[in-house]
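Quick start: what a row looks like.
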Amino acid sequence: MTTTIDRPSSASTSGVSFGRVLHAEWLKLVTVRSTYWTTAISVALAALVVVLVGANVHPQPGSTADPALLLTATTPSLAFVALIVGVLGVLSIGGEYATLQIRSSYTAVPRRLPALLAKAIVVGAWSFVLGLVLTFGGFGIIALFFGGDGAAVSLGGGVLGGLVGGALHLAVVAVFAVGLGALVRSSAAGISILTALLFVAPVILGLLGALLRAEWITTVTELLLATAGGDLSAAPGAAGLDLWAAALALVGWVLVVWIPALVLTAVRDV
């Protein structure tokens, strides 16, 4: 007598849907102290900087504040907050490699890539919501200061788009950082590379551009992760790149790190 056994598919063998993977990564994110420390530091830093700016910038009484002035006063801390959420992104994956928890993660999700993509989604979403809190909260603080000076404020003139763009900037950096952490598999190395890209590279290229007066250096500087990200929160006409060009540059940065990260995650040992 012969018995036929139906073998389950690989998807049912794993027993994990992408929704469940997302939920698992969300639980990881909200149950580690680094998430709350980086968030608290971001909020405190942004609030302090906006208060200092509001106390020292005084628009003309009876006027409507210029959109460029509003965005400049509301989002000056985003460059520093971008590094903080980037650190969160690197730690979210680098910490798992450091503690070898990554073995458990990839045992539960043998295909690996859904787990990595889910981590990027939850970290990016957290950073985007944090960005909205910081930009719109900063706008509210600036509105109080400017209102005290007798100046009116408005979300028109590109201000609303700039506030949302600032949040998108943080989300892109966070997603980039998760891919970077997966690529180098080290929190220290990932944070060092991220810091160099966000702060050291713009300074060096800026100095070279001033010394050599080469047009291509200026173009490269405008395409950097930090510069293109900053253009998302700039007022219309005040950015170095058009919005579409800045968005393409950011997509390029994400792909540059994520394509090799996905390939290596799929083929190399944990």
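That is the whole record. Residues 17-267 form one domain. Residues 1-14 have pLDDT under 50 and may be disordered.
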